[in-house]
Amino acid sequence: MKVHVLQHVPFEGLGSIASWLKDRKAETTFTRFYASPALPLLGGLDLVIAMGGPMSVNDETALPWLRPEKQFVRDAVAQGIPVLGVCLGAQLIAIALGSRVYRNPQKEIGWFPIEQTHCPAEAFHFPEKCMVFHWHGETFDLPAGAVRLAKSAACENQAFQIGRYVIGLQFHLETTLESATSILVNCADELSPGPYIQTEATLRAAPPAAYAEINALMDKVLSYLTRA
Length: 228
Fold this sequence. Notes:
Elements: E1 2-7, H1 17-23, E2 27-32, E3 47-50, H2 66-78, E4 83-86, H3 88-96, E5 101-116, E6 129-140, E7 146-151, E8 159-162, E9 166-169, H4 177-187, H5 200-204, H6 208-226
Helix pairs in contact: 2-3
């Protein structure tokens, strides 16, 4: 399996996805936009993973590499290559396919539940309700042809699927204790009081079982996307 990862900042890496890829002996390459914006050819790739980041997908003037990245994602979808977008990555899929990305009425940072939405039998199905890790201030309109998979009280479009091989997640299932700590160290200034913003103490108090549950769910998403 050949996998290419789009990484936007050094402190938002693969988290638990790294273990899933290692278990499958995946050949994993990276475009680390904070170091070099070079993108590979799509030929031969079995999966593209677009990770998160604190920037906006609308920041093309300040971050001109967003334009070729969007084209890369658009081309991957058009060629039928499985694509997983996480947080910023989901917003990249949405905007690459013609949808708006804009400020959500509420920032959502912390452990909050998502709810499964009605979707076709062949789509990926989340649990009816589960607690997941969020860190986002923007949201998106669903791209044309997308099926909404999950919602939350703070954000209507939490997950979507396009066809058989594209899934966007506004939340973070890959988060581990280590990766959560890394985001906290770099983005603690975003923890201003709000109805859907937890304190740093609350975030750090999440039990190991919470991480294990979301990581297991991420494994299921990845396995769904890459099944023959």
